[in-house]
Specification:
Protein name (chains A, B): Ribonuclease Z
Number of strands of chain A: 16
Function (chains A, B): Zinc phosphodiesterase, which displays some tRNA 3'-processing endonuclease activity. Probably involved in tRNA maturation, by removing a 3'-trailer from precursor tRNA.
Keywords (chains A, B): Endonuclease, Hydrolase, Metal-binding, Nuclease, tRNA processing, Zinc
CATH topology of the largest domain in chain A: Metallo-beta-lactamase, Chain A
Number of domains of chain A: 2
Catalytic activity (chains A, B): Endonucleolytic cleavage of RNA, removing extra 3' nucleotides from tRNA precursor, generating 3' termini of tRNAs. A 3'-hydroxy group is left at the tRNA terminus and a 5'-phosphoryl group is left at the trailer molecule
Number of helices of chain A: 11
Distance between the termini of chain A: 13 Å
Strand order of the largest sheet of chain A: 6-5-4-3-2-1-16
CATH superfamily of the largest domain in chain A: Ribonuclease Z/Hydroxyacylglutathione hydrolase-like
Largest interface: A-B, 31 and 31 residues
InterPro entries (chains A, B): Metallo-B-lactamas, RibonucZ/Hydroxyglut_hydro, RNase_Z/BN
Helix content of chain A: 10-25%
Shape of chain A: globular
Strand content of chain A: 25-35%
Order of helices and strands of chain A: EEEHEHHEHEEEEHHEEHEHEHHEHEE
CATH class of the largest domain in chain A: Alpha Beta
Oligomer: homodimer
């Protein structure tokens, strides 16, 4: 299961009563934060998912509204008592950005490890999450993230008994993929059921809806996607600044066959993100206008 | 006249419903900001004193809760259309700190000039304000600021007439300090009234109440002073971390013969800053527990 919490839904600048867009993810005791603009630690305190277990921060890009809150987050994680390393993923140059911002967070009780990601790179996140990124099209290099939590194949105890595998080897077999006993060999393929669908989400923000993102997000349970402009009358701006309209975001969700869409990163000129929601739901019905505190859990089915 | 606005009253970390301690000052069309922790631009937007005229930022020290909001402020000033230079004052090493944080605010339509201040240094602020600093005692080098707005001496028109100074030279005389006409000389001393009291304030935060601060704040109209701990039962912490209790702050105000005291920089363990206010008012009656939006104007008397 993956729990997701939208901490804020704003783009460009933090406003009174609107935190900047940021997504907090919890899985099996670990937290992963996607983007951290100025003020992000405040709703993170408010919703009480904690700081100590924050094991990774994934940055989409280096604009201030997505990264300026990093020093505050690092301090709050320190104050919460973390000593294990914290890993920061991001596009190229993330090391320099983190080093710059750490002038005001130089001494931490845990190691900060930076991993710069390239096109289509796959990488491990905490607690078995698997990440993959593609570049979008923005005014700075900007990464779209897909995250999968694979589901283990079922162990077929009946089949293992039929094959005569001693029961004390079932654990090693699942762990190591094969075991030997009495001159015989069994592999996982002998005793594991069919592949099972895992759960997945994607975060796409600060990018035009370029076609290369469609396969990245294909079939995710949840797409969290920017929708800076509610109406297509701002399309010229969307093109110029590398953003999307509600309609474009919904079309991306539709083309990617996702299950649900959360809109976020609303521009400061959009005081009521729900007002124009039909511009999205007309294209992709299962769309929610994101708000600070919006949460869901992605569960394995049966 | 100097207008002052307390943007926030919190110390250490930004909290839901409590902005970090920061003071905005307006005089004759210019703005000066004292400290800018994470989120400071949000109340600054809320109270609508604007961003474009922000001519100077004075940093007391380099802890994140006093400086992490700098990139956001710089962006908001840019978005508001400023093109004139903005000057940042602070203790030694401010240049390195500003350079670090500017990794996410590299391109601005105005110049950012850093001025590092030393013990007892006096310096010019916009619109005729005069600043002076002394170091406090904290876990990092920390500056206490005093700011004076001198009042011009009155021009004595009757005396100027008696001296036969042509009226079209009165302006140049006030501007240049002396004029010559028909082989005669007049100086400002000939036509200016007695010295007149100006207005002044001081900001003292993140320091122990060391005696060297008393002459710095002497007689100011308003002292904005940290009071991290409401009760003296936290005095051991106050000593260890370089802060003050309500009582200590009030004693500093009393010893400095200031006219009014605003307490600020309340610790996160102090949910209701007014509750323990008697700990201060018992020592210095004219004390206010600062809150976001607290404002006053320091006016020249008659």
């Amino acid at each position: 299961m993956i729990d997701l919490l939208l901490l804020g839904n704003g783009g460009m600048q933090p406003l009174p009563n609107r935190w900047l867009s940021s997504l907090l993810v919890r899985v099996d005791g670990s937290l992963v934060l996607f983007d951290c603009g100025e003020g992000t630690q405040i709703p993170m305190k408010q919703f009480k998912w904690g700081f100590r277990r924050l094991a990774a921060i994934c940055l989409t890009h280096h604009h201030a509204d997505h990264v300026a809150g990093l020093p505050g987050i690092l301090h709050s994680v320190a104050n919460a008592g973390r000593t294990e390393p914290l890993r920061i993923f991001g596009p190229p140059d993330t090391g320099r950005i983190v080093a710059g911002l750490r002038v005001i967070a130089p001494d931490l009780p845990y190691a900060v490890e930076v991993v710069e990601l390239g096109e289509d790179e796959q990488f491990d996140l905490p607690s078995g999450l698997r990440g993959r990124v593609r570049f979008g099209e923005h005014t700075l290099p900007s990464l779209a993230y897909r995250v999968d939590l694979p589901r283990a194949r079922r162990f077929d105890a009946r089949r293992a008994t039929e094959l005569g595998i001693p029961q004390d080897l079932w654990g090693p077999l699942q762990h190591d993929g094969q075991v030997e006993w009495a001159g015989r060999l069994a592999t996982g393929e002998d005793v594991l059921g069919p592949e099972r669908r895992g759960v997945s989400f994607a975060l796409v923000t600060d990018t035009r809806p370029v076609p290369s993102l469609v396969p990245l997000i294909d079939g995710v349970d949840l797409l969290v996607c920017e929708a800076t402009y509610s109406n297509d009358d701002k399309l010229e701006k969307a093109h110029r600044w590398g953003h999307m309209s509600y309609r474009e975001s919904a079309e991306l969700a539709r083309d990617g066959h996702v299950r649900q869409l959360w809109l976020t990163h609303f521009g400061s000129g959009n005081p009521d993100p729900e007002a124009d929601l039909p511009n999205a739901t007309n294209v992709f019905p299962d769309t929610i206008a994101g708000y600070s505190g919006l949460t869901t859990s992605l569960r394995f089915g049966d």
